[in-house]
Design brief:
single chain, 247 residues, alpha+beta, Helix Hairpins, 2 domains, 72% helix
Length: 247
């Protein structure tokens, strides 16, 4: 390959390396991904149990407050019994008293149900926290290891960025602009290798774009090899690269 095409290949490689380094800095590494997922699932389960316990506790408090208000209302109704003046008022007051008593009974049942849910949630929470302790400790240790590795990867990324600046500076503006447009179109892949395939039942060969499998004419391969011509695939428009044959 000519120096220009070699520079493009090196630039693509450097950009790929930078992308990998940034991924290693910002994403959970492969070696702790499963542990990360397990930790997240357990954390979510604990949070759900805590939420259930808190909600049940609020319901119990609300029921207790409602019971207290209903008992105060019942007390007032009972005090009014001696002051009624006719049978109609007496019957209406008894009906109100019965309604409040039923309300108190219903609220007491709600309070008891809330207490049962609190106990169940707290029991489940204790079990989850006990089983979570080991995985949490392991996760903390692996996360600390990951954090210790990040500075080295960050330094590596810095050096790669410097190399990218140098390589870009070695290319003509038009060629660089073309390469960047293709990279943007194909999510970072600006070049593609031309692959050699033997025809079935024949000793002859064909050349194909490794990205889209479009056939590449033999004379194009010759031009790239001998003249370093910058050629784009007729189909996907990526810059074609032909590796030099081995010894």
């Amino acid at each position: 390959m000519t120096p220009q095409l070699t520079t493009i290949v090196e630039l693509q490689r450097a950009l790929d390396q930078l992308q990998d380094a940034e991924r290693r800095i910002n994403e959970v590494p492969e070696w702790m991904r499963e542990l990360h997922e397990q930790h997240g699932v357990r954390s979510a389960e604990i949070l759900a149990s805590e939420t259930a316990a808190e909600e049940a506790s609020r319901e119990r408090t609300a029921a207790d407050e409602a019971i207290q208000e209903a008992q105060e209302k019942l007390k007032r109704y009972q005090q009014q019994i001696n002051r009624v003046t006719n049978q109609r008022e007496y019957g209406a007051l008894l009906q109100e008293i019965d309604t409040v008593k039923r309300e108190i009974t219903s609220l007491e049942e709600q309070g008891l149900a809330a207490i049962e849910r609190i106990d169940a949630a707290n029991k489940a929470l204790a079990e989850l926290r006990e089983s979570f302790r080991e995985i949490d400790q392991q996760y903390a240790a692996e996360a600390a290891k990951w954090e210790r590795e990040k500075p080295g990867v960050a330094r590596e990324a810095t050096e790669i960025r410097k190399r990218i600046v140098e390589l870009r500076g070695q290319l003509p503006k038009g060629v660089l602009a073309l390469f960047e447009r293709i990279r943007e179109r194909y999510a970072g892949a600006g070049i593609t290798e031309v692959l050699k395939f033997e025809r079935i039942g024949s000793s002859q060969f064909e050349w194909h774009c490794s990205a889209c499998n479009f056939r590449v004419r033999p004379q194009v391969v010759v031009e790239i090899r001998t003249q370093g011509t910058l050629v784009q695939c007729d189909s996907c428009k990526r810059i074609l690269v032909v590796q030099e044959p081995g010894p």
